[in-house]
Amino acid sequence: MDERYLKLGYDEFLRELKERIRNAQVRAALAVNRELVLLYWQIGNEILYRQQQQGWGSKVINRLATDLRNAFPDIKGFSARNLNYMRAFAEAYPDETIVQQVVALIPWGHNVRILDAVKTSEERMWYIQQTIQYGWSRNILIHQMDSHLYRRQGSAITNFSRVLPDPQSELAQQVVKNPYSFDFLSLGKEALERELESALIKHIREFLLELGVGFSFVGSQYPLVVDGKDYRIDLLFYHFRLHCFVVIDLKVVEFEPEFSGKMNFYVSAVDDLLRGADDNPTIGVILCRTKSKTVAEYALRDVHKPIGISTYHMGTPLPTQFQSNLPTIEALEEEIEIVAAEVEQTLASQEAEQLDLFADPARQEKE
């Protein structure tokens, strides 16, 4: 047989084998995380039950933490603070089936942060589902909760429901936020539009994170030639879930009705000059510092191109009275313990998986 063919066959075999091993390691880590979260729910549920039905007081948690640490000195995660989180976790999610099928699919540290930041069950489930769908890290999850993404999603003024077909209109509505949070910028109120645009491009990673999943940056000051005259779009993106171009026009002032006419022109031009046969209609988003809801609705009433109008805000220094509001040493130690427990469980699962996958065949035969 041709050696080249054998080499190609081996390379393909090696690639598939490495992919299979990686997938097995991921499945093992996810399984261990799920079991850890379920264990914590069960412990919290037992504490909650005994406090409600048998009259146990809050001091039992400190006693339990001491006893569990003595019984399992090498296992992290049984501090009094974490036991209180387990109790709150069980109280927030009384249905074990929901925990098994949804909540346990994200790490314990993510769940703790959601418990701290979100008070309603509907909003909690939304952040959990978004984390599962988009693979948010803990830092990204915290950022999205701090910026109140749940309340900002889909709240822009648009004409999507009137000019776009279902389900495109509903998806487009959810994609456009209001307001956008540019807290990663530190421009003054007197900044010009080009300064705002340049700052957003300089922080393109943070800007794309704020825009949301699916946005791909095409260009700034993107040139369009219409009837021999040059025009430039502030920011041009392509959205892979909507399958369309998204034109963003930046304004550092309050929304004015004539802004929608200019955007209507840009969207029409992009549809004619850039839109492909398989692309959906181009969407325009006007980003202003402020807007009047009534003026914005009037401006879009008879516009037939899909346009949304949103506002944005930029970061401001932390007020002096809050600058000293930092976590205590104890709180930091507890946070480290939570992370250590997750890492410990993940490493254990990976080690077990590797032993299973790479066990010596000769030793297996002897056994």
The largest sheet, given as strand count, sense and whether it forms a barrel, is: 7 strands, mixed
Order of helices and strands: HHHHHHHHEHHEHHEEEHEHEHHH
**Which band does the percent of strand residues land in?**
5-15%
Helix content: 55-70%
User: Distance between termini?
Assistant: 38 Å
Q: So what's the overall shape?
A: elongated
What is the total number of structural domains? 2
Number of DSSP-assigned strands:
7
Residue stretches low in confidence (pLDDT < 50, at least 5 long) are 4-8, 316-324, 352-367
Structural class from helices and strands?
A: alpha/beta
**Helical segment count:** 17
Mean pLDDT: 83
What multimeric state do the chains show?
single chain
State Rg: 27 Å
Structure report:
This protein has 367 residues and is of the alpha/beta class. It has 2 domains: 3-146 and 328-355, no CATH class; 152-316, 3-Layer(aba) Sandwich (Trna Endonuclease, Chain: A, domain 1). 58% of the residues lie in helices and 13% in strands. The protein has 17 helices and 7 strands. Strands 1, 2, 3, 4, 5, 6 and 7 form a 7-stranded mixed beta sheet that branches. α1 packs across α3. The longest helix has 51 residues, at 3-53. The chain is elongated. Mean pLDDT is 83; it is low at 4-8, 316-324 and 352-367.
